[in-house]
Design brief:
It contains 13 helices and five strands. The protein is of the alpha/beta class. It has two domains: 82 residues, Arc Repressor Mutant, subunit A (Orthogonal Bundle); 168 residues, Rossmann fold, CATH 3.40.50.10490. The protein has a five-stranded parallel beta sheet, sandwiched between helices.
Length: 270
């Protein structure tokens, strides 16, 4: 299914924008198309910027001001009605498989060798590694830690409760690494823990989407994935595939054979 050209355009230009205009794009993408259908002042307030800052975004994108942008959004909603069409007439499994494959190819292409080198060095060299995610991406974080614990000691999933997170932060320092999976709609709980960890000196590897998590400015390593999906959801398969690449990069910097053999032996004994 074709993606909306307006949201594609917003996602594509996002990395090049100044912070104020990025905030406007995040507000638009977080509640598309409804955020675009009110007044310019309401959108600016929602993004936490001034109306002139919001207006500059639409001039930069080549629309005839905010009114021209709204017209493009309305045309997209009227012409496609993508989610309603998907629910009323689901695509065949072959088409869904093609969409998933294309999205996966784009995702893997976004994880370049320099990014893998950087994240491999970070996760292999840190004294401890802590991972967390949002409502769905926490599954990718859990998978990372389960596999990483076989490669090296000190790999932990960030606990769920506020009190347990506070105890974790108490002993966190500059020798720790945090891996955060943060996708729209971005998780406030993930942001709070990660901001606090970075303030205590932890180094951040962030896996996010094209809209880019608000944590991006904190990241030492930033992996930004494209928005392609099979249907109206973001497939977990993309996040797991990227996680597999991260694990390979870490393993290449360690000598995990002995540790993995001990793990197998202990598993059989128990």
């Amino acid at each position: 299914m074709d993606e909306d050209p307006v949201t594609n355009r917003l996602s594509a230009v996002y990395p090049e924008l100044p912070p104020g205009e990025r905030a406007v794009v995040r507000a638009l993408l977080d509640d598309h198309p409804f955020a675009a259908l009110g007044s310019l002042r309401a959108l600016a307030e929602r993004a936490g910027v001034s109306p002139p800052t919001a207006s500059r975004l639409f001039d930069r994108l080549g629309y005839a001001g905010f009114a021209g942008f709204q017209a493009a959004v309305r045309d997209g909603v009227r012409d496609r009605s993508r989610l309603r069409e998907f629910v009323a007439r689901p695509p065949g499994t072959q088409r869904a498989a093609e969409d998933l494959r294309a999205g996966l190819d784009s995702t893997l292409a976004a994880v370049t060798e320099p990014l893998l080198d950087a994240v491999g060095d970070l996760l292999a060299g840190a004294a401890s590694v802590w991972a967390l995610g949002g409502p769905l991406s926490e599954l990718a974080a859990e998978y990372l830690i389960r596999q990483l614990a076989g490669l090296r000691p000190g790999a932990h999933r960030v606990p769920d409760s506020a009190s347990a997170r506070a105890r974790t932060l108490l002993d966190l320092g500059g020798s720790a690494a945090v891996v955060a999976y943060d996708f729209r709609r971005y998780s406030p709980a993930t942001a709070r823990f990660t901001e606090a960890a970075c303030a205590r000196g932890a180094r951040l590897a962030l896996i996010t989407d094209a809209g880019e998590s608000p944590l991006a400015a904190r990241a030492e390593v930033l992996i930004r994935l494209p928005r392609e999906a099979a249907g109206p959801i973001a497939p977990l398969a993309h996040q797991i595939a990227v996680t597999e690449l991260l694990l390979v990069a870490v393993a290449a910097r360690l000598a995990p054979a002995g540790r993995l053999a001990d793990l197998d032996a202990l598993t059989e004994m128990l």
